[in-house]
Amino acid sequence: MTEEAGLHAGDLPDDLTATEAGMWQAFRNGSGYDLSSGDAVVDDPHGGHPWGAERTVRARTMAWLLLDGPPALAGRVCALKLTGVRITGTLELAGGTVRPYVELCGCRFDDEVRLPETRFTTVRMVNCSVPRLEAARVQTEGDLHLPRCRFQNGIRLSDAHIGTDLLLNQAVVHRYRTGRSIAADGLTVGQDLQAELLESHGELSLRGAHVGASLSLRGARLVNPYSRLALNAPQLTVERTLYLTPAGVGSTLLRGATPARGTRIQHFECRGGVRLDDGRFGDAVDLERAGFVFTEDQELSLRRVQTPELRFLGDKPQHGKVVLSGARIVTLVDRAGSWPDSGNLHMGGFTYENLVPQGPFPLTRRLDWVAAATAEYAPEPYERLAAVLRAAGEDEDAREVLLAKQRRRCETLPLTAKFLGYVQDWTVAYGYRPGRAAVWMAVLWAAGTLAFAHAAHQPVSRDGHPTWSPALFTLDLLLPVIDLGQLGQWQLHGAWQWLATVVILLGWTLATTVAAGATRLLRRN
């Protein structure tokens, strides 16, 4: 019988060490192979305590088992389940097909793990120390679990296809020489991508990734002092919700549940720019209590994002910008203290249909919010806010917003137009407070009546003139269209003639202002 035939019959190869022979037999039996000592300090795969030959296997032996291993024992299923094992050499499975179930717990790799274009059923690596995971275009039918693992030189999952869930909970990933900690451009995950309490030191890149359910970065800490972006995820598609929210620190993660009393909460923190441009999110983008620490040239970019709900409830960034240009939101849930200061908010083309403020958010603060987004006058943010308030039945607030828009516009006009704008504001508030017109008209009428009661007046014709009435004469001066039969029948001289001219001019100004305001109201602008 040849050596190859012997291997496929289950015989042990001649060059295996005793440790590898035990792994070989456990693989055929589908049972776990635990080489841990029971001492937490010694067994820490990330610590410096050396592991000797009694806990060491070669990577090529693992590859042999996974790619072309012996058959299972009768009534068993082959599986590689290792605990507390040191793997030397590079684990090279590129382009292979791995059918056995793989589970590695508390293991230590001396060299990188290479899995490009490899096909798996399910892979679970828990609390392992890995110099680097190279897994571009890897495919799994089930899960890829990497919780609590540490990667000294990053992870590459570009164009990978994960059948169900990808778990990176509590993983610690340092950047590779490219500057990226996790390179997962074009990644496809069938269900959830959970990276709760993740520590990323470098750029987390998810450009063009697609997640079939939710993407959770609850309690994650993304730090990239080396370049502009800590999270680079343009054209990201998440069928349900993106969570950049707190998580509970403990034996189990919260995953959105209310934490037990006394649980320590860790907020999502990002020290570096965030780019989510052109993202599509099926349910929501949740930024509740998220912390962003930017330099002056960094930003939270949500350009052209589309989602039914944006929960903008994080801490106010002290530096950098928040950009919502072109974003399309159905419901904006926000807090007054979450928005950046004037000049650091950009909302050109930002559309939303409902406003749901959390906590006090008076209209004056909302107007400051719009002003902060428009360093130069632009009517669109004011009109959008007014439309949303009107749709919610807040007609008075909508008029106040449009009045603020006109006042802001007036500041940009030439001197003459600015003066006329001030007159419109003082008289009828650009038509948004039409009750002022009656007040001004009454004041001018009363003042004119008192003045013209003392005026010397002569009839234009001695025959057929009406009885002199200062009240009707003043009203005839004020109303430029209506003829009450007084103006053309009496003649004034000197200063009284000039006073009549002033009253006529004031009447015309007031009438045109009222007409402009009425037109604006009829258009519901």
From TrEMBL:
Keywords: Membrane, Transmembrane, Transmembrane helix
Source organism, top-level taxon: Bacteria
Transmembrane segments: 495-518
Protein name: Oxidoreductase
Source organism: Streptomyces pluripotens
